[in-house]
Amino acid sequence: MKKVGDKVLQGEIIEAKIINENDDNYFAQVDGQTLALAKETLDDEFDVGQMVEGIYYQDKDNVDRLQIDLPDARIDYYGWGTVQLKRTDLGVFVDIGLYNKDIAISYDDLPENSDLWPHKGDRVMIKLETDNKGRLWGKLVRTEQRQQMMRKASPRLLNQDIECIIYRHLEEGLQATTPEGFDVFIHESEYDGQVRLGQVIQGRVIQVHTDGRLNASLKPRAHEAIEDDAKMILTLLEKFPTHKLPLHDKSNPQEIKDQLGISKSQFKRAVGNLMKLGYINQIKGEGIELIKGEDGE
Fold first, then answer.
1. Angle ∠(59,64,66) on CA atoms, nearest 5
2. Which pLDDT does position 76 carry in this prediction?
3. Using CA atoms, how far apart are residues 281 and 297, in angstroms rounded to an integer?
4. How far apart are CA 58 and CA 242, in angstroms?
5. Please, what are the averages of pLDDT over each run of 10 residues along the chain (297 residues)?
6. Residue-level pLDDT at 5
7. Dihedrals φ, ψ of 206, to 5°?
8. Rounded CA gap, 151 and 149, in Å?
């Protein structure tokens, strides 16, 4: 049995003997140290002298406790926890299912930018670790460790929508995992803005590696990126026999308003969007013409 000084090490699974009880707790002893077992966490009753096994820890009130119902996150075992509190001077506190105890993840193990830290209610994958003072901390799972636990994804997932949760920030992008256990990498070029640790996101599979790892994009498909004004213009171009519209960036604002019901600035923004996506060409001084429809043809 590992020890810190004369005490058992926090996070260790130990065996202790029931020596007493009151209305709220049983009390168990190991090597002269007394631990409290909260009765509300138990399904069974115990007798004095009975041996019990569980995880040892100190709760937030510094009470030495033994819990029989083991959390998924333990020493050398990764499991999910739910964020309860964020403190920029310390880190975040995570509920892994211990009675009267949340586990701290140090700011040293979190992104440098605290805006990328998980919010309350977000879930993170951690294991437990003790420092040289015997204090219990949570350590975030790393890419290589998570990939050892991953399931191999099928090639049929290519171009499918997936839901995943961010478990690590990398210099070149994001590492995520799906509820099914597939490992997902999202390159920095495949998303815009900030995505925080623990955030649940919707993505699209853009590559399935031979080992079953996935690459995904958070950017919409081309047709999903078209705004309402652009969709309206695209629909008109598809319906017109010539697939052309005699409006352009030099057209009179009232003429654009009369024909399309939108302002000139809205028109220019929509046309720019369609040109960027490769749907239309602009004919200088004449108007715009269709290159391909919304279905890609």
1. 90
2. 87
3. 15
4. 77
5. 58 96 96 94 94 96 96 94 96 98 97 96 96 94 91 94 96 96 96 94 95 92 68 88 89 90 88 85 88 60
6. 41
7. -115, -10
8. 7
8 Å CB contact between 10 and 56: yes
Amino acid at 38: A
Judge residue 130's burial from the number of C-beta atoms within 10 Å of its C-beta, 0-12 exposed, 13-18 middle, 19 or more buried.
middle
Q: In what order do the strands lie in the sheet with 91-95?
A: 103-106, 91-95, 79-87, 123-130, 136-140
